[in-house]
Amino acid sequence: MTLRGMATVNYFAADWTAARDWYTRVTGAEPYFLREGYAEWRIGDRQAELGLIDARFRAPGTPTGPVGSVLYWHVDDVEAELARLLDLGATVHERPQDRGHGFVTATVLDPFGNLLGIMHNPHYLEML
Questions:
Q1: pLDDT mean values, one per 10 residues, the chain (128 residues)
Q2: Strand arrangement of the beta sheet that strand 103-109 belongs to
């Protein structure tokens, strides 16, 4: 197989400093890699990488706003995590949806316009 796993998901923010501080609160950790205009965290059970890039480095012609794919981060309780993200300043994009068979998803917009997905996946812990 040539695709070996997700390496990094990147979000862009015009107010990069505020976004860095916000994601530090969301993740509960300081970035492990930091330079002006880019921060990266390793988070979760598999140490997935979340990158935050100053919007001035966005490729020309890249759409802005809540477009494109949604990466869902596994959480144990979608409702509780949704409430926490809203308390931190996110806004609801899609309220929790029961997708059947124990899968529940929700999405928020972070204060910088990025889609952030959360999901309870009953098979997630089986894969660890």
A1: 82 97 97 97 93 95 82 96 98 97 96 95 84
A2: 72-74, 115-120, 103-109, 91-100
